[in-house]
């Protein structure tokens, strides 16, 4: 898991430094029916969707948490947002790890596709994979979202 954490931090320009002991215990007890591919996809999503520097049980989706008792979790201490979602997105884009086009160039199409995929995955995770709700979050028609899911080969791993 730490290997994937390192790889996806680098790929996605994130800074998730670790996994809490409680979250690691839950992850180690999950059966991973999709095997290593499911684990890799899962870790990529967790890094992309993370808001803190350490993954905790609160960051894990319901399918992984299962019947884990929530009463023992540390209290959530989170600062109130001081900016609108649009301001947050703008500031996040301004502080991106992307610092310009290197001399050898970039693949703009791939970068745009990767960004779009991250946004779609975040919307799906936030809505527990309810496509209608995810489409609303993204400002898309449901049919457009479904087409994008097929094109990008995005599917829920249960």
Automatic annotation (TrEMBL):
The keyword Hydrolase does not apply. Keywords: ATP-binding, Nucleotide-binding, Transcription, Transcription regulation. Residues 1-48 form the Sigma-54 factor interaction domain. PROSITE patterns: SIGMA54_INTERACT_3, SIGMA54_INTERACT_4. It holds the Pfam family AAA_lid_14. The keyword Acyltransferase does not apply. InterPro entries: AAA_lid_NorR, Homeodomain-like_sf, HTH_Fis, Sigma_54_int, Sigma_54_int_dom_CS. This is Sigma-54 factor interaction domain-containing protein.
């Amino acid at each position: 898991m730490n290997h994937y954490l390192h790889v996806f931090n680098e790929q996605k320009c994130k800074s998730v430094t670790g996994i809490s002991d409680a979250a690691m215990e839950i992850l180690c007890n999950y059966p991973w029916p999709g095997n290593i591919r499911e684990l890799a996809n899962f870790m990529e999503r967790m890094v992309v969707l993370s808001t803190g520097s350490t993954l905790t049980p609160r960051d894990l989706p319901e399918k992984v948490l299962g019947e884990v008792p929530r009463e023992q979790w540390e209290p959530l201490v989170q600062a109130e947002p001081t900016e609108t979602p649009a301001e947050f997105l703008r500031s996040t884009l301004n502080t991106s790890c992307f610092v310009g086009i290197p001399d050898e160039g970039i693949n703009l199409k791939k970068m745009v596709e990767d960004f779009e995929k991250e946004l779609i995955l975040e919307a799906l995770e936030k809505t527990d994979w309810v496509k209608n709700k995810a489409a609303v979050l993204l400002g898309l028609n449901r049919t457009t979202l479904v087409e994008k899911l097929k094109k990008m080969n995005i599917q829920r791993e249960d």
